[in-house]
Amino acid sequence: MSGQSLNFSVHRRDGVDAVTLTINHFVIAGWTGRDKAAVEKHIAELEELGVKRPASMPVYYRASCARLTQAPAIECTGPDSSGEVEFMLVEAGGERYLGIGSDHTDRTVEAYGITVSKQVCDKPVGRDLWLLADVTPHWDQLMLRSWAVINGERVLYQQGSVATMLPPGEVRAGYNDDASLAAGSAMLCGTLAAIGGIRSASRFEFEIEDPVLGRKIQHAYDVVELPVVG
Asked: Residue 82's CB: how many other CB atoms inside 10 A?
């Protein structure tokens, strides 16, 4: 099985290293909220779009490593896809890292098959990583945010603390394929409710902020809509 090689900048307390990491195992974790009321809110958002309630919480979807991308734009069929910011765990080369990604999803496909929908759209990820150990002591102070450009207007789309979701160790522990994770993996770990509801955008921008160490990881991408002809 061939993996997906991605270039990252690893930000350590004493400097920055450029690394190329090969991801052989990509997982998208869903319904990872600590706050059950917030989880129910997000479930309700998706139910309005016709998406069935999850069979279990958390739930783990395998996805193709080829879907991971750092390109400045992705192409999606039709107008019904949207992004969502998630913190990302990366394990490779004997290290554990924290990054960010967007579980960009076709909502029409999601309504009839969540697992299928995970394969339809590319999953943009940021180019910067932090050592997970550097943020673990103050984990709950990290903040996630996203902005969407909708009809030419940039609006705040998501905002909240990672404390609303299960911490990294618990998310990882819930996945039952540790051998594959150790070989080089990336896991998206859940998202926040959308402010004003889930909707599509021509551009999606997102970040994770560490207010204790005074830094952010940021990423953005444009969404190119391909025509639906039949």
From this structure: 25
